[in-house]
Design brief:
By secondary structure, the protein is mainly alpha-helical. Helix content is about 50%, strand content about 5%. The chain is built from five helices and two strands.
């Protein structure tokens, strides 16, 4: 209700048909309600920023940024390895040219 006193937005009657009506009236001791969109966008932005900043933990963000940076570096390293696309997609290499290169026999089993 501090925000109502501070910004004085236009009130309207709370909807008696709402399932939350009785709880609202009991908690706030009024049947008046206010729409957030009645406030200036700048005011809403500032209110949101203030609440987020009060709960924001920069240490958590810094740890998360470090994890993301390391994951990206790892992904870049993996992406330059041969066959990374096939591995990432789970494609099985069926090319027999590389398999058993010491075998000098043709398809009929003759040398």
């Amino acid at each position: 209700m501090d925000q109502i006193r501070t910004y004085n937005p236009p009130p309207f009657e709370a909807k008696m048909t709402s399932a939350r009506y009785a709880g609202y009236v009991e908690e706030h001791e009024t049947d008046e309600a206010w729409e957030l969109d009645a406030l200036e966008p700048r005011v809403l932005r500032d209110m949101i920023r203030e609440e987020v900043n009060a709960r924001f933990d920069r240490r958590i963000k810094e740890r998360n940024d470090k994890v993301v940076k390391e994951a990206r570096a790892d992904m870049r390293r993996r992406m330059i390895e041969p066959g990374w696309i096939a591995g990432a997609l789970g494609v099985v290499d069926t090319d027999d040219d590389d398999a058993d290169s010491d075998d000098d026999t043709d398809d009929d089993g003759e040398e």
